[in-house]
Write a structure and sequence with these properties.
There is one protein chain. With 613 residues, this protein is of the alpha/beta class. It is built from 21 helices and 24 strands. The strands form five sheets. Strands 3-2-7-22-23-24 form a six-stranded mixed β-sheet, covered by helices on one side. The chain has a five-stranded mixed β-sheet with strand order 9-10-11-13-12. Strand 23 (599-604) and strand 24 form a beta hairpin. Helix 15 crosses helix 18 (518-527). The structure holds zinc ion. The site of zinc ion has 3 residues, from loops.
Length: 613
């Protein structure tokens, strides 16, 4: 009895305490202005905000495309209104949307339409042709392809394995290509392939194509005998024949592209480009990328604007025309900050040297495997004969900078990087020191003594970590181990005080594919290994980054690189509500798990553009 009584007392006490607590909460709340209801609340997640202290939290509330609350689920639910959509993340990992600081969108869009780079069998090839033929408007050309790019690849460098040389058999396409003419290329442009429709389009008999009044078309043999007219458009066109003497659809020689040039439209129709763009946007959404810095042509910019108007643009775009176009930008009054949070202008991109892939990147010392070669300067550095012109490139930089544009320059070899740093110092002397965020694009091989200048000059190193997984196959052979110490040296770049900004260079070159998937870049930055985990421990492992630094480089730092870190790049109140929900907690994922991580939801401006929940 006594016990029961005390239980009752205790119960009453607790009840009255709870009641008064409720009352006090109620009155406190009554004094606060009732928050505007959110459009979307994401609750009970593991949200890595990438704010200044890398805060981990549970929930966000979004209204009008911006974060209006970031914090606990309990507090987030105060923003729930009648129309609010609430998604329970059930503990899933959330990051700010990926911000890819280097893409070539129009090439990627074209590449996605038709490519057989990784195709290794005839049946796969036929399936691809069928697919693109069904998609294209009647009679449009099927172009590109780039077969054979991965034939000789060392196992694993891009997820492919060594295999037999594949070459498309064109006799199989006649039934599936329909009325679409086909002109496709081998990755290194040493061979081309066409179908019957393409031959008819240039007035040749598909059964027995011949050129110039019935002369033998096996031009190489003729040329050696001196009977082929020199310098003609058909010079060097070789129709390859099988053992029975039948043309097999393949051509070789310098004249091939000009032979078909008149028949192939100089550019795609606008409608086709819009379709390519839409397909590429779908690819981007699938990988959680919410912002790209793009170096496409003006028509691409126009298409972005059309899609934005139609509310179909699902990625934000930072757009960079060529450095030689600074005057045009000045005439249009475009400078840093021009545009809006969807389409941002105000930066330009130039090239100073070549690339590693073709041994044209510019070095102080010759290539280790090519003693006569130090690489090449690009045209903005030279006269028409290719001779270096003192001050030419610098003048473009001075003019663009003076007008107020941000400058970014492609530099691969150690001399190219060093010369650019000299130019930047000169820019400071002549135009004054200010917050330029000069973008050193690729910053691929840097001389040891130049690293400290990166930080001092406040540069943004716009790097593509997946290049390293791809290039390490032959880097040491080409430039030797000593110079490789300064190659893709992300940790040293970061420690110098420079800002690392990550991207992909999507879609890559005709010889190597760089997918838009950010997981490949994060993996490469933290492991410095190929996709199959070689070498053990990583290539120059002292240059590995932490996953936290890699994520920051792919989000906040890329926003910083675009002068947009106040509105993008982290999950904070007032910023654009761009985020990605992932299948794994990247902070605790093994390298293999990073690669296997999937995007569950992509949210851009508070709208779910990929995934469902
Ligand atoms: Zn590029």
């Amino acid at each position: 009895m006594k016990i029961r009584l005390s239980l009752v007392v205790a119960f009453c006490l607790i009840a009255s305490m709870a009641f008064s607590l409720l009352l006090s909460l109620g009155s406190a709340r009554a004094q606060e202005p009732r928050p505007q209801p959110a459009d979307l609340i994401l609750r009970d997640g593991l949200i890595y905000t990438v704010d200044a202290t890398n805060t981990l939290t549970e929930a966000v509330a979004i209204r009008g495309g911006k974060f209006i609350f970031v914090g606990s689920t309990k507090d987030a639910m105060r923003f729930r209104g009648k129309q609010t959509r609430v998604i329970d993340l059930k503990g899933q990992f959330v990051l700010p949307g990926f911000n890819d600081s280097h893409v070539h969108f129009s090439s990627a869009a074209q590449f996605l339409e038709f490519n057989i780079m990784r195709v290794a069998t005839q049946s796969e090839f036929i399936a691809r042709v069928k697919e693109v033929a069904a998609k294209l408007p009647k009679g449009e050309w099927i172009l590109g392809g780039y077969w054979g790019a991965y034939n000789q690849w060392v196992a694993g460098s891009a997820g492919s394995t060594r295999r037999e040389e594949f070459s498309p058999d064109m006799r199989g396409v006649e039934a599936v290509a329909g009325d679409h003419p086909m002109f496709i290329r081998k990755f290194d442009d040493t061979e081309f392939a066409v179908n019957a429709t393409a031959l008819r389009a240039i007035g040749l008999d598909p059964a027995n194509p011949t050129l110039a009044g019935g002369r033998s078309t096996v031009a190489d043999a003729k040329k050696k005998q001196g009977t082929e007219p020199a310098g003609s458009a058909i010079d060097g066109v070789e129709f390859i024949r099988d053992a029975t003497g039948r043309f097999n659809g393949h051509l070789r020689g310098r004249g091939v592209t000009s032979l078909f040039a008149t028949a192939i439209p100089a550019k795609f129709s606008h409608e086709r480009r819009v379709q390519q763009t839409k397909d590429a946007l779908a690819e981007i959404r699938r990988y959680g990328v919410t912002n790209v810095s793009d170096m496409s042509d003006d028509e691409q910019l126009e298409i972005y604007r059309e899609l934005l108007k139609a509310e179909e643009l699902t990625v934000r775009v930072h757009f960079r025309p060529g450095l030689d176009r600074w005057r045009e930008m000045a005439e249009k009054r475009i400078k840093i900050g021009s545009g809006d949070e969807w389409i941002r202008l105000g930066a330009l991109k130039g090239h100073i040297d070549g690339i590693m892939g073709t041994s044209t990147a510019r070095f102080f010392q010759p290539y280790s495997n090519d003693p006569g070669n130090r690489g090449k300067w690009r045209p903005l550095m030279t006269d028409e004969q290719g001779n270096f012109v003192e001050g030419k490139f610098l003048q473009y930089m001075l003019d663009a900078d003076e007008w107020g544009l941000q400058i970014s320059v492609h530099a691969i070899g150690d001399e190219a990087n060093s010369v650019l740093l000299d130019y930047l110092e000169e820019l400071n002397r002549r135009n004054g020191v200010r917050d330029r965020r000069f973008r050193l694009v690729h910053a691929q091989v840097v001389r040891q003594e130049d690293f400290k200048r990166l930080g001092k000059l406040g540069i943004v190193a716009e790097v593509q970590p997946f290049h390293l997984s791809d290039d390490m196959r032959w880097m040491e052979e080409r430039i030797g181990r000593q110079r490789c110490k300064g190659a893709y040296a992300f940790k040293t770049i970061k420690d110098s005080g420079a800002i690392l900004s990550f991207g992909t260079d999507w879609p890559g070159t005709s010889a190597s594919e760089y997918p838009i998937n950010p997981m490949l870049g994060l993996y490469a930055a933290v492991t410095r290994q190929t996709l199959t985990g070689e070498p053990a421990g990583g290539w120059f492992p002292e240059q590995r980054l932490s996953i936290e630094d890699a994520i920051r480089a792919y989000t906040y730092n890329s926003a910083y690189a675009n002068f947009e870190e106040k509105i993008k790049g982290s999950i904070e109140v007032t910023k654009c509500a761009d985020l990605v929900v992932l299948s794994k907690n990247l902070l605790q994922a093994s390298p293999r798990e990073i690669l296997d991580t999937k995007v569950m939801l992509t949210v851009v401006g508070g709208k779910i553009v990929y995934g469902s929940n």
